Amino acid sequence: MKTMLLTLFILSNFLYQPSPHSETNQSATATEISSPKLEYPDNQRKSFVEVDAFYKKLDKDIYEEYKNATFSMRKKVSFKEVPDVELTFKIKTKLDNKKMNPIDSTIHPNRQVYFLASFHQNEKEEFHKYVVIDAETKTVLLKGNHYHLYENPYK
């Protein structure tokens, strides 16, 4: 009886041991998940031109503030701050009060970017636009615009 139990114990340990190959695959997968390859890594320690100098040199086909803009905004921020800055722009121009959620796993949260936004309003219409440009590569990461008719509450 003891021999049979001992044999079962040894066989169960032998049969239920994870193979070294499967452990290696699991740890490699965990490493890949925890540190994905970033297309835009952290560059917070690098120095870039101030936002006004950047805007002056920017190709106007990429972005140009509205002529006679009612309000414009230029900021150099980290990518994680973009939703807050964009929300400030929306609130100041009375567009709405919803914060964007720029989920992009290829951009490090501390990546430096330029946030440029412009607003124009006349008696009939309102125009909003913004662009987020990577400070290092000068690549457009996000952009958006909005148009709607304006009803003057004081008429």
Automatic annotation (TrEMBL):
It comes from the Bacteria. This is Uncharacterized protein. It comes from Psychrobacillus mangrovi.
